[in-house]
Write a structure and sequence with these properties.
Elements: E1 2-6, H1 13-21, H2 26-39, E2 60-66, E3 71-78, H3 84-94, E4 99-101, H4 102-111, H5 122-133, H6 148-154, E5 164-169, E6 175-181, E7 202-205, E8 209-215, H7 217-223, H8 225-234, H9 239-251, E9 257-258, E10 261-267, E11 272-276, E12 282-287, E13 294-297, E14 299-300, E15 306-307
Parallel strand pairs: 3-4, 11-14
Antiparallel strand pairs: 1-5, 1-12, 2-3, 2-6, 5-6, 7-8, 8-10, 9-15, 10-11, 12-13
Helix pairs in contact: 1-2, 2-3, 8-9
The protein binds glycine.
Glycine binds next to strand 8.
Length: 309
């Protein structure tokens, strides 16, 4: 068995392996690991204490995919519930749907018995207020003001980072993938990134492998990045070549807003690799034989950034 995660998965990866050792499924393993990241108050890009939208509201996105049969669940723009990964799993298991957003997702979360919580912390509120005050003429009265120009200037490539990725594989070759995020800091209300979009930020297929993304979700949506990695594996590329090709697809995107992107990936045999547009960026993995996780460096593929606000 093996689990690969983005580096901020360090608070949960041991729990994922322990869960599979105790007989849990790959879905149980990654859900348990991601919940610990969602609860981590020091992580401002996932779950509780995540960075808010331009209006100061924490809107969470998550998805989960089962590589055995390609079933999936996703939620987007969820306010007031700290564990979107668990709500996404319930969507997959309890509904004939894949994707719920906004008030519908929140209604479903309450119906499934999830406990609501105030999601913004005093610290993140203070950061948002200070950042907003430096840009908006009247930061206390945004409700009825146009927001588009403000979002373009508030957002910059250095603020698009975050998100957690987990891919788990058991000894029978079952693979599952989970992604959770508070998304793009200062986003337009209602914005969805790649994390809840199956094929963009998350994809798993036992026959070929799996991939998940962090970074600027708009790019992964446009290039169908997670599905591309798995498709390149299906076409016979090695794991390393598949990841690099998916990064090159991101590099080749046009448009005014191009920022950082990262991929973690696994092939059907359980080999792992990861890729980044930032040199030196790390990821983590842990097997059932390991006493602790390993830290490894991602393969670097240059994706020049531009932000023409
Ligand atoms: N990759 C997370 C997001 O763009 O929301």
């Amino acid at each position: 068995m093996i689990v690969i995660a983005s580096s901020n998965g360090d608070v949960g990866i041991r729990q994922s392996i322990a869960m599979m050792k105790a007989g849990g499924s790959t879905l149980d393993a990654l859900e348990a690991g991601i919940r610990l990241v969602e609860d981590n108050p020091a992580d401002h890009w996932v779950g509780y204490s995540g960075m808010p939208s331009i209006l100061g509201e924490v809107e969470l996105d998550a998805s989960i995919m089962d590589g055995r049969d390609l079933t999936a669940g996703a939620v987007g723009c969820v306010k007031g519930f700290p564990h979107p990964i668990s709500i996404a799993r319930k969507v997959m298991e309890q509904l004939p749907h894949v994707f719920l957003v906004g008030p519908g997702a929140e209604r479903f979360a309450a119906e499934m018995g999830f406990e609501p919580r105030e999601m913004i912390t005093p610290e993140t509120r203070q950061t948002w207020q200070a950042d907003l005050a430096s840009l908006a003429q009247n930061p206390t009265q945004l409700e009825n003001q146009p927001l588009a120009g403000l979002v373009r200037h508030f957002s910059n490539p250095h603020r698009t980072r975050g998100t957690v990725n987990f891919i788990a594989r058991d000894d029978r070759g079952n693979i599952a993938t989970g992604v959770s995020t508070s998304g793009f800091y200062g986003k337009y209300p209602g914005r969805l990134g790649d994390s809840p979009v199956i094929g963009a930020g998350n994809y798993a297929d036992n026959r070929y492998g799996a991939a998940a993304c962090t970074g600027m979700g708009e790019m992964a949506i446009r290039a169908s990045t997670a599905r591309s990695v798995v498709m390149y594996l299906k076409q016979g590329l090695t794991l390393e070549a598949a990841g690099i090709q998916a990064m090159i697809d991101l590099r080749d995107l046009g448009g005014r807003f191009i920022s950082g992107m990262n991929i973690i990936a696994m092939n059907a045999q359980g080999r792992v690799a990861a890729f980044s547009s930032e040199p030196g960026k790390t990821y983590i993995y842990m097997t059932g034989e390991d006493s602790d996780f390993h830290v490894a460096t991602r393969s670097f593929v240059d994706v020049p950034q531009r932000w023409e606000a």
